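Teaching assistant here, posting this on the class forum so everyone can see the example we discussed in section. The complex has three components, and the goal was to see what a joint structure prediction looks like when all of them are supplied at once.
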Amino acid sequence: MIYNYFFNLTGSEIASAFICCILPLVYVLTYVLYAVYGERKVSAFMQDRIGPNRCGYRGLLQTVADLLKMLQKEDIVPRNADKPFWVMAPIIVFTGCFTAFACIPFSSAFVGSAFSLGILIVMAASSISAVGLLMAGWSSNNKYSLIGSLRSVAQIVSYEIPTFLVVLVMIIILGTLDLTVISEKQTAYFWNWMILGGPGLSWQKFVYIPFMVSSFIIIYISTLAEVNRTPFDIPEAEAELVAGYHTEYTGMKFGMFFLSEYGNMFAVSAIVSILFFGGYQSPFGYLGNSLNLPWLVPIEQLVWFSIKCIFFVFVQMWLRWTLPRLRVDQLMATCWKYLIPIAFVNLIIIGLITVL
Amino acid sequence: MKTEEIFQNLKDKFGDSVIELNTSMIEPYILVNPLEVDKISLYLRDNELLQFNNLMVLSGVDDANGKKNADDIIEGGTLSVYYHLESTILNHIVVLKVSTPRENPEVASVEPIWKSSDWHEREAYDMFGIIFLNHPDLRRILMPYDWEGGYPLRKDYKSPEFYQGMKVNY
Amino acid sequence: MAVKTEEMVLNMGPHHPSTHGVLRLELNIEGELIMKVTPHIGYLHRCFEKHAEAMTYPQVVPYTDRMDYLAAMGNEFGYAVAVEKLLGIEVPERVNYIRVIMAELQRIASHLVAIGTYAVDIGAFTPLLFCFRDREMILSLFEMTCGARMLYNYIWVGGVSHDLHPDFIRKTQEFIPYFRPKIKELNDLLTGNQIFIERTANVGILPAETAINYGISGPSLRGSGLKWDIRKNDPYANYNKFDFDIPVGKGLMGTLGDSWDRYYVRVLEMEESCKIIEQALASIPEGDVTSAIPKRVKPPVGQLYSRIENPRGELGYFIISNGTTSPFRVKVKGPSFVNLEVLNELCKGHLIADVIAILGSIDIVLGEVDR
């Protein structure tokens, strides 16, 4: 819809397509700006201190200051680093993260690309970052970075499996891969959300509820591992590997790694909220509908979507500052010995219930 | 057990290796032969009346009882090592001392008996130059591994001028 | 066909966020398994023992602070007790009580740092800030008494340098009930956390026999089940007047003598120190704290070894006097120096991440290792 709006405005396909691509970029960059500030404030309050409060009103411009600092830093390249890989690695990581936003519907009026295999694209694009991480570790010419990036790739590849098993469960119930259609199906009030069994009123809806809750927990934990957040942040484990795969990066290249970490957090929160919590749908109905202002509805949906995603990002931050880190073999054991069997059992039972 | 009884026990078993008991220096100690101290220590650890299972500290000492020659280097005299042993089972303490000639300081190592002496002996070697025979890995521990300037805690030690191109006394 | 693997040598160099100071660890690893760990020390060697021979006995006290800088009161206490035994003098009762209160407050502060930094090594960032917040209270009590937060020059040979500030007793009595619930908060956050237990239980198991042979002392020895504390087994100052317990490891979450036991002994010791401080504050007598400080310290000829229980283990001073005002030889047995030797034994067959967990549970301070 936004595409049509701009097309009518400018009369050119290319210009309107370009603007439609820029919009999510602007959204994500603004989000990252305040997510970094938010993380510092959240961690500060949990640790009984204050956090940034000097730069701007109550420290709101802190990330802008950090960004300016990072931009003017000297770009140091280690002497024996593999130059082409060194430069490509942060770009690939960020591209993988941002491509995932192409198919995520921010509201009923805006989706970057209305592709019918939406969720597959999102999963595939976030896996491209793994290649970027491997390149970063290898080209740094540093034993520690290599160990960090190998652990990171192993972690991402293993935790893709439970994530995808849960996505498969949702596909079985909903019957579609298109994220916009999934969001539309969970319309009208929160009891139609998938976490509470899905739309409609049948015996199946109530039987689904415990399995939906367990699937939600499984996918939340596995996406936490995909984004390399504590308790799964072995690749960046400060205590052992200084900073893992991005030890040797400085300035804006390091900034791109940082940006893609927060972007990834948002992307996986978006997936979780679309699959289980109704995406951009409001739990209570729309002001636009009751006031008879139809153009208000997409804006409200954008607001609801942002609230849900930011809440999940907040929970990820909360977990980071509370829990210690899992050791690498315990991490792998959690995935292969616990999450995958539970996800499989989930899949089989849901499949049976849906068929009956 | 008191030190006198322990001294009597050791004297009966080892004879001449156990040289004398000195009680005039605030804390009584037993002077033993430096090359036999490992056999004596094994007996001290394993005998049921003694059972000294913990070596508290092993210190090298420069007795500075030689003569200072024209260059201020001490000639003659001895270097000593003090062993403080304790039994956590029978709750008693004994102090052993060995004295070796300054020119050729050699002491038997007690590392096979109490593993804690490993680093203590390396430190005594590093600081005084006392060679511990049969020590598995006798090299410097606190000074850099390639320090050529001598043994720092000796009383006649002078700092070298340069170490790897850097001035030592600044 | 078997895959040929080679042993790799990995260096956790002197600059490293979690080796607690300048310590170089050389790890021989195969894949992720440790074959051998060789610690290389000496980066912080400041020649304490040589300096001590050039100064008079009272002048050595500020230098003793700087060895184990996280438990400075304990270092001074040990030196003062050793020289007083050499001289054969008795200190007034009030001095003994003050010294005990300071040493126990210092024990709590040192254990808070040990626990906080151990949590950061395992990956939990928040307990560090909680521990340091409580340690700030203790440091301001010290600042009130002697003007310094970390390196005090307070406990002198024959007494202490100043008497207690008039508000000190009241403020310490307010601190203890503030601190007790914080220990409970720490237990809720860290001690019972399943991930923390998985990282530390059954890791770095130290049997009691091996521990005694290696000369380990302090919480690391008590974590292996042996009830050995210098405050009870060889009492100094007036510790035999106080009623407190010696916590030992019991293998509650894993095997006896693993890293979790050593960590938990430290948590329990903080509670015991609170008890001692309360008893001392309730019965501290009046008196002149500087009356027994000798004008010139000139001990008779002889040698003496005396030891105290520092937060990290048994701190011993072996002092040889030749009848002059300067010591002839001061040999310090630092508990961290002796405890670090056992690292190779404990790390065999574990992973790289476990080396950090084990090193943190032994709790070393490089100032004491290198002196």
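For the discussion questions: Chains A and B do not touch (no CB pair under 8 Å). The radius of gyration of chain A is 21 Å. Think about how each of these relates to the inputs above.
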